[in-house]
Amino acid sequence: MITAPSLHTWLKGTVAGLLLMTALYGLVLAGPVYQTRVRVVSADTGPARTDPGIQDMIKEIGPVFKYTRFRLLSDKTMLLTQGQKKVMPLPGARRLSITPRGMQNMRIQYHLRVDTAKSPVFETNVGLNNNTSITIGGPRVKNGVMLINIQGRTR
Amino acid sequence: MTCHKFSKEFISKFVDNALDTESHDAFIRHKTQCPDCCAAEKRFRRTGMIFERQADAMAEQVLKNTPKIFIDTSGMGYESFIDRITKRKSRKAQAILGMLSFAVAAAIISLAPWHQEQLPTRLAVPGPSAVVNSVDAYGSSVMILETAKTHHTIIWFSET
User: How far apart are CA A59 and CA A50, in angstroms?
Assistant: First the structure.
């Protein structure tokens, strides 16, 4: 037979519940988290080949370019909160800075910037559709060009 | 007892069914003609019944005076956490159960509005994968493309 817990027990439970609720609301107030995936790819006109892990990306953008060989140089996924800046190195002594700036018109707003050691090279503000990606290309690497694919997702 | 054909031990064994078949049948044949042996047999049977009754009474008395022992077999097999708490009536365990129930309820209540608030952001809007709000290429030429099939946005710039 299940006996009803005492008043003291219910009091303890209430306190624990309130603490948990406070913690959860704290997480909510901290704002949404933006799962951001950055894939850096080297594209050139070598023997046709696409590395595993970028098949989906190359299927989308491959036909646009004259390039035949796509090699994955780096693949990084990070969780960023609004305003949190993340800097990651790129080939050729460059750096990519990425900062989510919240939601606007149902799109994740990102600030993206590419720098060399000496000066900034490229800077943009984009509104990325949830769970889609944008590709930034152009910087030279060895015999080809660099493609930076940025995918954003939020709950 | 005047008949001396069968001894008292023999009749006692007959009452106890401890004789072989031949001796057993021989006594049955004999007692039909010998009232003395028949009476002796009845006497032995009565004595046996008295002993049995006495033994039963003694056993009953012994059982009454023996403390009751119960073997809890539930602990040997599967017993749920809640069963253990309710059976043992431990205040600490009941407190944990109470707190857990409140915590779960609080979590459900807390998450419900959060999900409702976040739901619209999960939906993708039609159009290009990304809308370019501003570009600065610091003197480099910039080209913005959109693929025909998937509407994937590409920003292409050439470094000087």
Answer: 10
The verdict on ipTM greater than 0.85 is no
- The answer to whether the CB atoms of A136 and B106 lie below 8 A apart is no
Q: How many domains does chain B have?
A: 3
User: Using a CB-CB distance cutoff of 8 angstroms, which residues of chain B are in contact with residue A132?
Assistant: 124, 129-130, 152
Residue range of the domain that includes B156: 127-160
In degrees, rounded to 5, the angle at the alpha carbon of residue A123 between the alpha carbons of residues A122 and A127 is 135
- B103-146, pLDDT tens digit by residue? 787 777 766 555 544 544 455 667 888 888 888 888 778 888 88
Output the pTM of the full model.
0.55
Q: Is the dihedral of CA A98, A101, A105, A106 positive or negative?
A: positive
B104 and B142 inside one domain? no
One-letter amino acid at A99 equals: T
Whether residues A129 and B111 touch (CB distance < 8 A) is answered with: no
Judgement on whether residues B104 and B137 belong to the same structural domain of the protein: no
The answer to whether A41 and A147 have CB atoms below 8 angstroms apart is yes
Domain membership of residue B60 (yes or no) is yes
User: b/e string for A50-87 if b means 16 or more Cβ within 10 A?
Assistant: bbeebeebbebbbebbebebbbbbeeeeeebebebeee
Disruptive mutation site among A60, A82, A97, A145 for chain B (greatest number of B CBs within 10 Å): A60
| Contacting B residues, span 90-109, partner chain A, CB-CB under 8 Å | 91, 94-95, 97-103, 105-107, 109
